[in-house]
Amino acid sequence: MRYCINCCIHLLPYDLHRQCFRCRGPNHNNQKCPVCKGENKIPLYTDSKQMKLLAVLEVRTDHRESWNGFFCLRKGKLCSLIFGLIIMTLVMASYILTGAKHGLLLIPSPFHYGAFTSNPSLMDNESLSDMKDHYQPSKMNISYVKDYPSIKLIIDTITSKIEFITRERPDLEELRKQEPHMFSVIPNKFLPNSKNPCWYEEYRGNTTTDPYATNSYALYSKRFRTIFDYLRKVFWNHLYHYKDKHYRLRCLPHFYIIGQPKCGTTDLYDRLRLHPDVRFSAIKEPHWWTRKRFGIIRLRDGFHDRYPVEDYLDLFDLAAHQIQGVLQSEAATERGKMNNIIIGEASASTMWDNNAWIFFYDNSTEGEPPYLIQDFIHAFQPNAKLIIMLRDPVERLYSDYLYFASANKSVEDFHEKVAESLQLFENCMLDYSLRACVYNNTLNNAMPVRLQVGLYVVYLLDWLTVFDKDQILVLRLEDHASNVKYTMHMVFQFLDLGPLSEKQEALITKSPASNTRRPEDKSLGPMLPTTKAILRDFYRPFNTKLAQVLFDDAFLWKRT
């Protein structure tokens, strides 16, 4: 038998007696209550027997405070729990907001993102440095965050967003509308008796005219003025006279070494130009297709006047003079014999650098460039040959950092720049396609290290949309370094070059390597193991796809 301790009402076995809390309302008087009468201690009896040991319950009765609904012990605990959760939520919210503002969060907030500017005209009004500041997120205090798992979360997000989607190839008429002057200068047919693409162009200047007076390469670079001084002296000796008109031989390259930076392109260039049938442009890396034709000299300096295609063609005049000499001598003795001299161009930016497109082409493709460099090269030279030299993208990035960083170089600084660049790339991938992020000028200028240059397969797939696979030779620097003779023979065969004497071959294959790492950079040692592990994970899906496209597992770079 149970009794209410407040009003002594007899309770049934399953009666909760919910009105019990109200029975002692504000009018209750302990002195007059027959149960409580002057006592604050109320004994409980069960079955007429007094309870022993914990049977007496001491109850403090205080009627001065009217809590009403909060006397229940269970309800009190629930309220305390809710109150604690509210306090915890407020503390966490304060941490997140403060950390995101000052860059203290270990894992970047997905809401902290500098969006692309979709209107090119708006971007034209900003300097490149202003755009970098606009896009760059708050600086991360990640100097000492070298734990692999935290940054691995960023890489996992990037990997989950990767899609290799084939781009649509633009029509020839669309390209003509974009570059009408270029199409008016370069013909669609070349001389049939020359292996290299060349043609005769009428020269309308007189003997007092400086043919290179307006050449932008000569105007903006002191290094090349000596070359153009020589060209001025010999220019008139190489004009072809026909029916009271003067003609000059113009040429484009037969092959391009298109990439990648810090992958051995300089060494390949230096060896190839020793071949008796190979000539190169007057400047190793004109960067005309990617930068100069848009008026970019240095990205940090903004835009200058655009370099016309005539300025680019001037760079091949030295080689054109030699080809013309061969054509004229052979025409007089053995008509119909082919000229076998070929010209190369070795701008390592050609494969990947399409950063300027947004300033000149319509941005109606959700952040992806509607036209790429290869579209225009193929329009003029559908039979061009392309050579690509690649290396382990992890080592390429570190070499790139050591070569281009000007001060405060260290393995810790490299680690921080990698982490920041990964965050920027992740932010882009959350909202845009892989191609849009890879070719975005604002993002690429904001990243402290050039992560995107190592995404080889993205660029290669886009080149394969316009050129056949047998027109592209892909080499590995690791193979070239271990067996120069083998890789050079592959190049000779690819370019269909004539045989060499033993002396000529020894000169090409046994010369010391070019553009090796500087001693002061070697002293820094290798990158941190954590940094290498992070970059391995980042590049792995791209290397896997590259190996599939080339049917060669060596491009997985598992042993390097």
What does this structure look like?
It is a single chain. The chain is an alpha/beta fold. Helices cover 41% and strands 8% of the residues. The protein is built from 24 helices and twelve strands. The protein has helices at residues 20-23, 73-102, 120-124, 128-135, 148-160, 172-178, 180-185, 216-220, 225-234, 265-272, 309-314, 317-333, 357-360, 373-380, 393-404, 411-429, 434-438, 441-446, 456-463, 477-482, 484-494, 502-509, 519-522, 529-550; strands at residues 2-3, 10-11, 45-46, 49-50, 198-203, 240-242, 245-251, 255-259, 278-280, 342-345, 385-390, 472-476. The chain has a five-stranded parallel sheet. A three-stranded antiparallel sheet has the order 5-7-6. It is elongated and about 110 Å long. It starts with a strand and ends in a 10-residue tail after the last helix.
Task: Using brief descriptors, characterize the structure shown.
single chain, 41% helix, transmembrane, 24 helices, three-stranded antiparallel β-sheet, alpha/beta, Sulfotransferase_dom, five-stranded parallel β-sheet, transferase, disordered N terminus, P-loop_NTPase, 560 residues, 8% strand, elongated, CS_Sulfotransferase
Quick take:
By secondary structure, this protein is an alpha/beta fold.
Q: What low-confidence regions span 5 or more consecutive residues with pLDDT below 50?
A: 1-24, 35-73, 99-145
Sum up the overall morphology in one term.
elongated
What proportion of the residues is helical, as a percent range?
A: 40-55%
The gyration radius over C-alpha positions equals 38 Å
Averaged pLDDT: 80
CA-CA gap between termini: 84 Å
Biggest sheet, strands in spatial order?
9-10-8-11-12
Sheet of most strands: 5 strands, parallel
**How many separate helices?**
24
Q: How much beta, percentage-wise?
A: 5-15%
Structural class: alpha/beta
The beta-strand count equals: 12
